[in-house]
Design goal:
The protein is mainly alpha-helical and about 130 residues long. The protein has five helices and three strands. The chain has a three-stranded antiparallel sheet with strand order 1-3-2. β2 and β3 form a beta hairpin. α2 packs across α4. It starts with a helix and ends with a helix.
């Protein structure tokens, strides 16, 4: 056991420790980025809360913000899994096609995507 061997062992342990450290993820799963396609669609749905949109309409709206059709598909999956939007079978077309709209019960609970939280009307009723 020479000093050189001991130094190499210490260096090996340090490499393993560096590899096992948790790394910071700047884009954690389940978080919408302000410039992302999910946020573009979210703003579209909030601006038209009672309107139904087809996938083609969502792709057209996202193209105005330079978002691809694949990004729209992932944004729809994300927004549906977050229960922000709901999908309804398009009765005018094949049953494989859906129409999407803002989930009516989404604003009944605390909204994690705005700073306002629960609707202001509900908080005024509690104060009375």
């Amino acid at each position: 056991m020479t000093a050189d061997w001991i130094a190499r062992q210490i260096m090996l342990v340090r490499r393993v420790e560096k590899a096992n450290r948790l790394r910071f993820n700047p884009n954690p799963k389940g978080v919408m980025k302000p410039e992302g396609c999910a946020m573009v669609l979210y703003q579209l749905f909030v601006g038209n809360p009672h309107r139904f949109f087809t996938r083609a309409q969502l792709v057209d709206a996202a193209k105005e913000h330079a978002k691809s059709a694949e990004a729209v598909d992932w944004a729809i999956i994300f927004l549906r899994s977050s229960r922000v939007i709901e999908a309804v079978i398009d009765s005018r077309r094949n049953s494989r096609y859906n129409r999407y709209r803002l989930n009516p019960s989404f604003f009944a609970h605390e909204n994690p995507y705005t700073d306002q939280g629960p609707s202001k009307q509900g908080s005024e009723d509690k104060q009375k």
